[in-house]
Amino acid sequence: MTSESTLGATRFVDCSLERHGPAILDILNEVIANSTAIYDYVPRPASSMEGWFRAKATENHPVIGIETGDGQLAGFATYGNFRAWPAYKYAVENSVYVRSDLRRRGFGDLLLERLIQVAIERDRHTLIAGIDAANGGSIALHERHGFRHVATIRECGFKFGGWLDLAFYQLVLPTPSHPVDGA
Q1: Which tens digits make up the pLDDT trace of 4-14?
Q2: Band (182; pLDDT cuts 50, 70, 90)
Q3: What is the pTM of this model?
Q4: How far apart are CA 138 and CA 130, in angstroms?
Q5: Is residue 34 within 8 Å of 103, Cβ to Cβ?
Q6: What is the C-alpha to C-alpha distance for residues 69 and 71, in angstroms, rounded to an integer?
Q7: What domains are defined for the chain?
């Protein structure tokens, strides 16, 4: 699938460790070092990506990338289990990250839109975004796609010398058509 953006033709890709692992790691580590979008302090080592991709594959969670016309990864979106107990099987927590030099150009919107489509195709029922309450860009992105604020946990994180509030945004999907109890 291709889309037009401010940078010309782009295309969605299913990310792989071999092709996209280093670019995803660079994006994640830049976010860890320079923002409160990830409540972590230490950049991840390259060796962490193998386990990260393995876990995504084991759980059948997508890692959707968007490449610029020249084949560079502009950003990626994924989701993971919201909580570990079986009754949460239809709920997932999403993540959308765009390279720092390409933010505010529409890539986040394209990625989140595609991730929502994939969640519907895979019979998920609710997408949950945990967003630093001061991250107005991410909040606006999620609200544009129908997410609604459902809770804020005050002062649950501490980074860059200050307390962080974590806001939860939720999008309820029309799927699955026949949910079932049990595993």
Answers
A1: 444 567 899 99
A2: confident
A3: 0.93
A4: 10
A5: no
A6: 6
A7: 2-172 (3.40.630.30)
